[in-house]
Design brief:
- The structure is a single chain.
- With 119 residues, the chain is an alpha/beta fold.
- It has a single domain, classed as Alpha-Beta Barrel (TIM Barrel).
- 31% of the residues lie in helices and 27% in strands.
- The protein contains three helices and five strands.
- Strands 1, 2, 3, 4 and 5 form a five-stranded mixed sheet that branches.
- Helix 1 (20-29) runs parallel beside helix 2.
- The radius of gyration is 15 Å and the shape is elongated.
- The model has no long low-confidence stretch (mean pLDDT 95).
């Protein structure tokens, strides 16, 4: 059984053009049991996605793709990392992490998560 765990929607302004309602319909038609929404550095589409997925009989998985600094010795280098919320507490932690990145560490107009915040 296949489940898409990395999906950017129209809420990933630079990276995504997929519309939530359309991808949920396609996943349901394909018989996928679940689908993840992992927009870049935000959870803006989370509620819309959650309602659409549940309405189509899919298990919604919420997450985000984040930009992380501190994974290499070059402190100016950043990488992308996918974070998925396992439960409500994980969702709240992800919300807090994204808010922290957007308020404390914006680099070149992008929220950047410090590796130390993930430990």
């Amino acid at each position: 059984m296949f489940v898409h765990l990395r999906l950017h929607s129209e809420f990933s302004v630079v990276d995504g053009t997929n519309r939530i309602d359309e991808v949920v319909q396609v996943a349901a038609r394909d018989g996928q049991p679940a689908l993840a929404l992992t927009d870049l550095s935000n959870l803006f589409g989370g509620i819309k996605f959650y309602k659409a997925a549940r309405g189509a009989g899919l298990k919604p998985v919420l997450g985000a793709e984040v930009v992380v600094e501190g994974l290499s010795e070059d402190l100016t280098q950043t990488s992308r990392m996918l974070l998925l919320a396992q439960d409500h507490a994980g969702y709240l932690n992800l919300c807090e992490l994204l808010a922290r990145a957007w308020t404390l560490n914006v680099i070149r107009d992008q929220a950047v998560v410090k590796l130390s915040w993930l430990r």
